[in-house]
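Input sequence (303 aa), recorded before submission:
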Amino acid sequence: MTSERPDLTLLALLVAIDDHGSLGAAARAVGMAQPNASRAVRVWERRLGVALVERSPRGSRMTAAGGVIVHWARQVLADVDRLLDAAAALRTDQEAELTVFASMTVAECLLPGWLGEFRRSHPRVRIHLQMRNSREVFERLAAGECDLGFVESPAVPRALHSATVAGDRLVVIVDPAHRWARRRRPLTVAELAATPLVVREPGSGTRSTLDIALAEYPRAEPLLELGSAAAIRTSVLAGVGPAVVSSLAVDDQLARGELCAVPVDGLDLPRTLRAVWRPPRRLTGPAGELVTGIVRARRRAPG
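Predicted structure, token format:
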């Protein structure tokens, strides 16, 4: 029976005839000369003992029996594609390196857990992680210097694709000795804007979100500009001054009472954290598997 099995090119030819309604167009689609394609179909019809293709001056179409064969041919070709994808994934796991650039908040608060889970199922993938602010992540992606980025910026350049990986919220924080920690009424947005703050550097997603939220108000000059949420947290703990920072970076300190969150009337700063990458839209290989795992875990998480 092995000698009677059709090769994959013949199956692709039959599917192409069904799709194009023309033997000539089908032959071109699979890279065969038309006489060879016609001969291959006739040989297989004789082998099966049934007519597969009905030819006419207007073109070619499948007979009833040919339609059944084409249905199964599509299934076989799809299974072969899945086989090749699986083989490529196995090879990729053995050979691949994954270069990731991540904004500071994501790198400090979320990526360690994400990468730890990924490494358990992909132990052979070598991961290179660098921390940059969101603007720099976009620049490095555009330059082809990394495979995948994680950002906290409110907007993503049109040339890039993205997927939501987490949610976050910015909070105003002070040390317990600061006068705002004893306020009975929320701050106003104008008061916050007029106060010198410990802030992230320009280009960070946290800074961009804050600047957009306060754009309509007179602003005080920053008290201090720092390059990470950890540095801001340390400064506020030391009593340098108030700051606006990711809740992910200070949840533990707020829970222990080491820092105080200050409500601001009429100001809510939720934001979306995203994975970003260059085209094509469908992200494949280790980068695609990392993002898929993160998104699935987020969907399974309670709440």
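Checked by second reader. The longest strand covers residues 161-174.
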